[in-house]
Amino acid sequence: MSCKEHCVKLNDGHFIPTLGFGTYTPDKVPKSKALEATKLAIDAGFRHIDTAYVYQVEEEVGQAIQSKIEEGIVKREDIFLTSKLWCTSLHPDLVQPSLERSLASLKLDYVDLYLMHYPVAMKPGDDLYPTDEHGKLILDTVDFCATWEAMEKCKDLGLAKSIGVSNFNHRQLERILNKPGLKHKPVCNQVECHPYLNQGKLLDFCKSKDIVLVAYGALGTQRYKRWVDQSSPVLLNDPVLGTLAKKYNRSAALIALRYQVQRGVVTLAQSFKEQEMKENVQVYGFQLSLEDMKVLDGLNRNFRYLPADIILDHPNYPFSEEY
To answer: Per the record, where is site Lowers pKa of active site Tyr (predicted)?
Structure first.
């Protein structure tokens, strides 16, 4: 996949591939699967790899990239690697050490993109989900604008080429954009986005501010029991997607991915299956008509598979706003 055709320009001048490979690996899946899957993804043609400290697979993702560099399949500069700052490290003095810890795990000198994973702080420490004696999550209060200033320093040091946010609503984005002394705008906002939650208003807002929207859960998520209500509708079984899949002789998954790419949304797809990865990179091989794009717009029901209920009590909980 050549970058010229399949990348969008970020507001800091760097380019991000419009299709990315997600590496979230649920607890029950051995971490070695992340290593294997990332290697397969690079072989299939993915050049944008999305990971995060909280996924606990940075080491495996780094090994996969290293092995593909050693095989001569890619050079480091061919790979666009995203990682994320977890909620337990939002204190400004923890930001750079957290990124350096991720870089050590990845065995890389820099990440292409570093994101604040949520605008919500949790108690600092080694526990990813710190809880009290009643099993309740221990939240913390940190001004994410101060966190952002520490992210800016990481960019200035060259530890991250670009910096952005994830799971921010438009008001939270505005707080950063209007921050006195802002040095670097967020280049993107990574959020759940699919035909049932098309984020139309947030997308328009981001475009107006020259911020790229990045979609996770673009295929309706992997429905992991820990996070997703098992009675929620299965996106890829939607009859409209099925009809369009027949019409274009493509899978329902490819229709859902193409919908995003055509809207100018950078889209992450996750799979552990080689065949699905190979299929997902075919997203550039066809185009949906304007009429069919409108039909897909009509599927929106503002339905969130991942409402992040565990942080509902935090004043910065991002999903109570309309967008």
So the answer is: 84
Distance in Å from the first CA to the final CA of the chain: 33
Identified catalytic residue from 53, 55, 114, 259? 55
Q: Domain residue spans in the chain?
A: 3-305
| Neighbour count for residue 51 (Cβ, 10 Å) | 27
Cα separation, 178 vs 172, whole angstroms: 10
3-state helix, strand, coil in the chain (%, to 5): 40, 15, 40
Three-state DSSP at 55 gives helix
Cα separation values, 224 from 52, 229, 230, 322, Å: 17, 9, 8, 25
If you classify domain 3-305 with CATH, what class do you get?
alpha beta
- Tell me, yes or no, if the pTM score tops 0.85: yes
Q: Which H or E run contains 275?
A: helix 274-280
Length of the chain: 323
317 noted as active-site residue: no
Sign of the dihedral through C-alpha 58, 60, 61, 67:
positive
Helix (H) or strand (E) run with residue 155 in it: helix 144-156
pLDDT tens digits, residue range 8-32? 999 999 999 999 999 999 888 899 9
